[in-house]
Amino acid sequence: MNTYQRSSALFAAAKKVIPGGVNSPVRAFKSVGGTPIFVEKAQGAYLFDADHQRYIDYIASWGPMILGHAHAPVIEAIQAQAEKGTSYGIPTALETEIAALVVQAVPNIDKVRFVNSGTEACMSAVRLARGYTGREKIIKFAGCYHGHSDAFLIQAGSGAVTFGAPNSPGVTQGTAKDTLLARYNDLASVEELFHQHADAIAAIIIEPVAGNMGCIPPAEGFLEGLRALCDQHGALLIFDEVMTGFRLALGGAQERLGIAADIVTFGKVIGGGLPVGAFAARAEIMKELAPEGPVYQAGTLSGNPLAMVAGLTTLKALQDDPEIYVRLDEKTAHLHHGMHALLESKGLPFQINRLGSMLSLHFTDQPVTDFDSAAAGNNPHFNRYFHAMLDRGVYLPPSAFESYFLNDALSYNDLAFTLEAFEEWLKTV
Ligand code: KE4
């Protein structure tokens, strides 16, 4: 069984100079308890912690490392670019090259603007939708996460109030009033908001396959219904594909599910492990963006050549080997079916949600279709499961509200090892 001496010491030192010892809250293991491991290096499907223990990695840096860690062509491209400098704040041909690849690969877009995170991409997409429509309100869905911009840190208002309420100190009521909350997979909740606020709604923003409540696929007809409502009311449909982009297919959820969004946001995979976000739309929308149009958006490190070359090399690898999506789907299905069989034989209540290489396990006998049903899961069970797998060298997302992200470097031996660890834990339940 794993031990965590050095990680514990490193965590204690980190907490002295970094809030909570981490630079992103989910890494602190608050949801699952215990001490986070500190990673020293990663290679392929494996993480290696400060105590020199190996883990099979199922978060892939929360999505970006779809090819596996330290993928040689990506590392070589970064090394070569670094010798030429890392950022200029001046245009480079690299930005045009990756933008052209994105425009070719992703349906329904003509232009793309690069930023530095998924948060920035979603924040900018909402500003663009508001600028393009001249409207102020947006609809988001309880349980969907679009980054930490104020407009998204909103929870359901009290009672019949359809306006959102801040779910973080520092977010103002003034901001919250322009974010309306709907329920995922519940078209009627969206229709009600349009009924109440029709001409004020600039856009709906949604994760076309939710990954921040665990993995929740859209119900049959749900996205089609959103598309129709946006067309009927002159609102824009924003697909937040920070997770699904270049993961569910090269063309993302739009390609995989056959639904056309008006604005699409990206992060994670598009940067190949370096900080890159992006948002894209057809030309008539993107022409509103500065410096062409009046909607302002900017960034010192946006499109910097080091991040661009990591993203470009990653996207080219995906474009050149479309079989990767078949391999990822098959490996995820293999894990799904193995877990399902073990859980059934144990007689535990469970739901496994999966679409493509996104998967999540919920300890509940109710279908998990929205935030409330995801929250109804037996999370103490999940936390014990998480640590049992960690102790056996399997790194799962440290929260019941996250999705697994499989990577192409995972072997069927790794999957077998994972299922054996899972079976060992089940014997203790
Ligand atoms: P970033 O700002 O973290 O790059 O992207 C924000 C974001 C936007 N949209 C979706 C659908 C996302 O999942 C995210 C970020 N995802 C989380 C994992 N659930 C990042 C992990 C973290 O916060 O540390």
Total discrete domains: 2
Element string (H = helix, E = strand): HEEEHHEHEEEHEHEHEHEEHHHEEHHEEH
Beta content:
15-25%
CATH fold name of the largest domain = Aspartate Aminotransferase, domain 2
Distance between the termini: 18 Å
Runs in which pLDDT lies below 50 for 5 or more consecutive residues are none
3D shape: globular
Give the bound compounds: ligand KE4
Class by SSE composition: alpha/beta
Summed over residues and divided by their number, the pLDDT gives a mean of 96
Can you offer a commentary on this structure?
This protein is α/β, with parallel strands linked by helices and 429 residues long. The protein has helices spanning 5-17, 72-82, 93-105, 118-133, 173-176, 187-197, 222-233, 252-257, 283-286, 305-320, 323-346, 371-375, 379-391, 412-428; strands spanning 39-43, 46-49, 54-57, 111-115, 137-141, 154-156, 164-166, 179-182, 201-206, 236-240, 263-266, 277-281, 351-355, 358-362, 394-395, 404-405. It folds into two domains: 5-70 and 322-402 and 410-428, Aspartate Aminotransferase, domain 1 (Alpha-Beta Complex); 72-320, 3-Layer(aba) Sandwich (Aspartate Aminotransferase, domain 2), CATH 3.40.640. 38% of the residues lie in helices and 16% in strands. The strands form four sheets. It has a seven-stranded mixed β-sheet with strand order 4-12-11-10-9-5-8, sandwiched between helices. The longest helix is centred in the C-terminal third of the chain and has 24 residues, at 323-346. The mean pLDDT is 96. The structure holds ligand KE4. Ligand KE4 binds at residues 24, 26, 62, 117-119, 122, 145-147, 207, 211-212, 240, 242-243, 267, 277, 402.
